[in-house]
Design brief:
The chain is of the alpha/beta class and 533 residues long. It has three domains: 297 residues, FAD/NAD(P)-binding domain (3-Layer(bba) Sandwich); 93 residues, Alpha-Beta Complex (Flavocytochrome C3, Chain A, domain 1), CATH 3.90.700; 83 residues, Fumarate reductase/succinate dehydrogenase flavoprotein-like, C-terminal domain (Methane Monooxygenase Hydroxylase, Chain G, domain 1), CATH 1.20.58. The chain is 35% helix and 15% strand. It has 13 helices and 20 strands. The strands form six sheets. Strands 6-3-2-10-17 form a five-stranded parallel β-sheet, with helices on one face. It has a four-stranded mixed β-sheet with strand order 1-9-8-7. α2 packs across α3, α3 crosses α10 and α5 crosses α13. The longest helix is centred in the C-terminal third of the chain and has 24 residues. The two termini are 32 Å apart.
Length: 533
């Protein structure tokens, strides 16, 4: 049984930002960061386009960025949260630059600001087409400077510890649920330990692996959201799954799907049918720069109308030298599959990209469970509403990581470690006889979510998905209870929970809004602010 002052589960932009700010404020605290792979592998490191911040004050201002965010969120953003993130975001980005982040500049030394769908101004700071990688590199280097931050790599968090583990029966309506730490699986030796902490921060990223096509890495299995749900914490708006409109088509089953950044369209690329004709003008006056929910549905609709397996992105008219400077990895990836972006149309399809719902938190990242905070993609903070504005995700991670650290700094001296936490009980479990039981269930889950709970939904499809998920849940829980735990089994359990939550949220929302489009409930149906789970 290990003990620490603060346990941070996840090492991406939100987790690392929390650790850095807290270490600056409180060098006396022991801060433990947990990652199930290593600090280089996170949802953050896969982000391509950039980070949105009001930078050029001659042409841009906070109110414009706030308005763009609210517009993309389709009516259910929390305006207070939007203002906090936008107004504090510039300062957090300045701190990233002070840490050594190398955002691209013009020849005159000014930052090269890109533009993406839904933005009315150029405000995207970027590092070529691997901005997330650069931000993760910068944060990792900064974390190394603090002696009081301990990093545990290849540790898989199984469940957060609450009064449930002390014998109390908890429900979602139980008052004063408290978190004392987490049970974690050491992937090096398969031991399961309890790590006790005064404050716990969930920063576990996204949920993309519930779908067949996703731009998310294999680690994006919704672990934190599932853990908080099992602990009877409150979640919200899980039906809002963002599909990125332009993943590269025809790469032979790559996992994850290769993303053609939205910044490419901001640079001037145009969406077209395979025959070369444009179509976005039929869906939105902003054409190829409309918000992601609109563009993804338009591509999906065009594919269904024509029977085509993909739509296309036309970059042939763009300045070749500047394109190579901004998007070297995208160009090389296309070349590797036989596509020359300067001569050929790039085939693209929508792919699951971002979860806009999650653990319900307040403006300081506090969840409904005492001592348990959350930040980043695993949360529903109110910033994104029904649809995330491009490049607001890294910004949210920076701002909320900082705010979580500030609140822990104020509260932690009044907290103590909980005594009497039992060791993990694995008595009676056996080694799994057939790994195929896990792998086939995972494949089945991806297929049914892709067919029934995708970009366009219907009541019949949702009901069919829920019926099959109930069976899959029963089978997975039986396997979980009978066999020795492995990361693969735990991830399957979490994914099954996430799929259920997405489907349940979709069934609860009797309207079409933002990323949730149900043909049985057109836009004029009653307004639903939040689906609480």
């Amino acid at each position: 049984m290990q003990k620490t002052d603060v346990l941070i589960i996840g090492a991406g932009v939100a987790g690392a930002s929390t650790a850095i700010r807290l270490a600056q404020l409180r060098p006396d605290l022991k801060i433990t960061m947990l990652t199930k792979t290593n600090t280089k592998e996170s949802n953050t490191s896969w982000a391509q386009g950039g980070i949105a911040a009001v930078w050029d004050l001659e042409t841009d201002d906070f109110d414009k960025h706030i308005a763009d965010t609210l517009d993309a969120g389709d009516g259910i953003c929390d305006e207070e949260v939007v203002r906090i993130v936008v107004e504090e975001g510039r300062k957090r980005v300045e701190e990233m630059i002070d840490m050594g982040a190398r955002f691209d500049k013009e020849d005159d030394g000014d930052y090269n600001l890109g533009r993406e769908g839904g933005h009315t101004e150029n405000r995207i700071l970027h590092y070529k087409d691997i901005t997330g990688w650069e931000i993760q590199r910068t944060l990792n280097e900064k974390v190394k400077q603090f002696d009081n931050i301990e990093i545990l790599e290849h540790y898989f968090a199984i469940d957060v510890i609450t009064q449930h583990h002390l014998g109390r029966v908890l429900t979602r309506l139980s008052p004063n649920i408290e978190c004392y730490g987490a049970y974690v699986l050491n992937k090096e030796n398969n031991d399961i330990d309890a790590i006790l902490a005064k404050s716990i921060v969930m920063c576990t990223g996204g949920t993309g692996q519930i779908y067949r096509n996703t731009t998310n890495p294999l680690i994006a299995t919704g672990d934190g959201i599932a853990m908080v749900y099992r602990a009877k914490g409150r979640l919200a708006n899980m039906e809002f799954v963002q599909f990125h409109p332009t993943a590269l088509y025809g790469t032979g089953g790559d996992q994850p799907d290769f993303l053609i950044s939205e910044a490419v369209r901001g640079f001037g690329a145009i969406l077209k049918r395979p025959d070369g004709s444009e179509f976005m003008d039929q869906y939105d006056k902003r054409k190829s720069l409309a918000p992601r929910d609109i563009v993804a549905r338009a591509i999906d609709n065009e594919m269904k109308i024509s029977g085509a397996e993909h739509m296309c992105l036309d970059c042939r008219h763009l300045d070749h030298e500047e394109f190579l400077e901004h998007f070297p990895n995208i160009y090389e990836k296309c070349k590797s599959v036989g596509i020359d972006a300067f001569k050929d149309l790039i085939p693209v399809v929508p792919a699951c990209h971002y979860m806009c719902g999650g653990i319900l938190v307040d403006t300081y990242g506090r969840s409904s469970i005492k001592n348990l905070y959350a930040a980043g993609e695993c949360t529903c903070s109110g910033l994104h509403g029904a649809n995330r504005l491009a490049s607001n995700s890294l910004l949210e991670g920076l701002v909320y990581g900082y705010r979580v650290a500030e609140d822990i700094h104020k509260e932690i001296d009044g907290l103590t470690l909980k005594e009497g936490i039992p060791d993990w009980d694995a008595e009676g479990t056996l080694q799994p006889k057939e790994m195929v039981l896990i792998t086939r269930s995972w494949s089945e889950l991806k297929e049914l979510m892709s067919y029934y709970v995708g970009i366009v939904r219907t009541n019949v499809r949702l009901k069919r998905a829920m019926d099959r998920l109930q069976l899959l849940h029963t089978e997975t829980e039986r396997l979980y209870g009978e066999t020795t735990l492995s990361p693969q089994l735990c991830e399957l359990r979490n994914l099954t929970t996430i799929a259920f939550l997405v489907t349940k949220g979709a069934m609860m929302r009797h309207e079409s809004r933002g990323l949730h489009y149900n043909t049985d409930f057109p836009q004029e149906h009653p307004y639903v602010e939040t689906t609480l789970l």
